[in-house]
Input
Amino acid sequence: MLIERLSFTGLRNLEALDFTPSSGINLITGRNGSGKTSLLEGIHILGMGRSFRTRQLKHAIAHEAAEMTLFARLGGTPPVPIGVRRQREAGELEMRLAGERVPRVAELIETLPMQLVNPDAFRLLEGSPAGRREFLDWGVFHVKHDFYDAWRRARRALKHRNALLRHDRMDLGSLAAWEQELAHWGERVDTLRREWIASFMPVFQDTLNRLIDLPDLRLLYSRGWDKQRSLGEVLEQGRIQDFQMGFTQHGPQRADLRIRLGRRPAVEVLSRGQQKLVVSALKLAQGRLLEQSTGRSCLYLVDDLPAELDAEHRRVFCRLLETMRCQAFITSVEHDALVGPWETHTPIAMFHVKQATSGAGQLVPEAQIDFTTE
Output
């Protein structure tokens, strides 16, 4: 779904804003610290229920504000309102969708699919497996409708098995029961992940080829336990060692999506600019596969597009976005770096975040250009 309207109050250093973005490319410029990234952060919280800048949402609330309220109207028949509110003193995020309160963040994620390309996105290459599992499971969640239930059941079984492993004495009866549950749902999670990867690989390869020539780059999926044995067998045979460690060492919670260039980790070989293009290919391919599989569109948040990319690769990145006919919000300190790469038929809205005398950032429409698509 496309965002037709955005309204934020109480978000970091941004003044209250209410604006209509373009259905295509939205370019946001401004000085460092003016609030450009905060704007992307607000959209991210709306669709993911969390910030990409802080683990505690109360830190995203403006310094003197009692609460933060974020609202969007999504296009459709009828339009779908989506909103979140976080009070500084309250511990929970209040989430509403189509006027109804929703209890699970998964409903926000399903309603507003989005991908974020920012400096933290490099963690896909250089970070722990947890970030790559999150990337992997986002794709499976949106394409495989029974994934969330299988993932939730496997997680519940893992939690109970770990609790039993931390007891002073091993309760074999209870342990066996939760192992059977974990084995069943863990195998199902793995099956869905492998099916998704089989669909993702050709889309990713095509996306990567459009951005950069890296014929030796490979994605290698590791399911989290010995591929020659069933999960039930691995859990049963690993009881003693798991009991000594106090947690389950093998299972779907240890899966990884390794990214290699030849035989070496890609992060050890590629330049910073090449890494950004690989990460961008991963993120854009997620959305392309989502659209191919479900007909739904993905929203893209790109923070500081020019960073690490020369003019030619910025142009290539922008050309790919244009062919995808998606909605995107892109920030930069450099005005000219965002304006130049686009074709004249691309729907573009330009906004400038300027520093007010109060210290808060004000979003000002700098130019709005809606060309007729040829």
